[in-house]
Structures are given as C-alpha cells and as structure tokens.
# Entry
Amino acid sequence: MDNELLQAISNMMDQKLQPINNRLDKIESDISVLKKEMREVKDKVSDTYDLALEAWGQSTENRTWLENNQATG
# Structure
C-alpha cells in the first residue's frame, strides 16, 4: 500500500512539475541562442574596432607623408 501511495504521489508531482520543466528547457535553449548571438556581436565589434584602428593608423601615416612631401616639395 505504501508503494502504491508513493507511486501515486510521484506521478502527481511529475504532472505538476512538467510545465515547469518545459519552461526551464525553453529558457535554457533561449539562453544558448543568446550566448551565440552575443559571441557574434562581440566578434563583429572587435573586427570593427580593429578596422577603425587600422584606418586611423593609415590616415596618420598618410598625413605624415603629405606633410613631409609638402615641406620638401
């Protein structure tokens, strides 16, 4: 009798907790997608920063070159 009662309680708990488990699974999935998207954004920001830094360095070199050529030319 105790086993039957425990089994009935277990089944009832499973039924009550299943919606919560489903929501947790969905949240975990959503978080996984967000992490992936954040990694992609981080990579794009990093690439953009590197490109801007390279362009700034190139413009500085060009300005120096122009100033030197104007002084000698």
Helices lie at 2-72. The two ends are 105 Å apart (CA to CA).
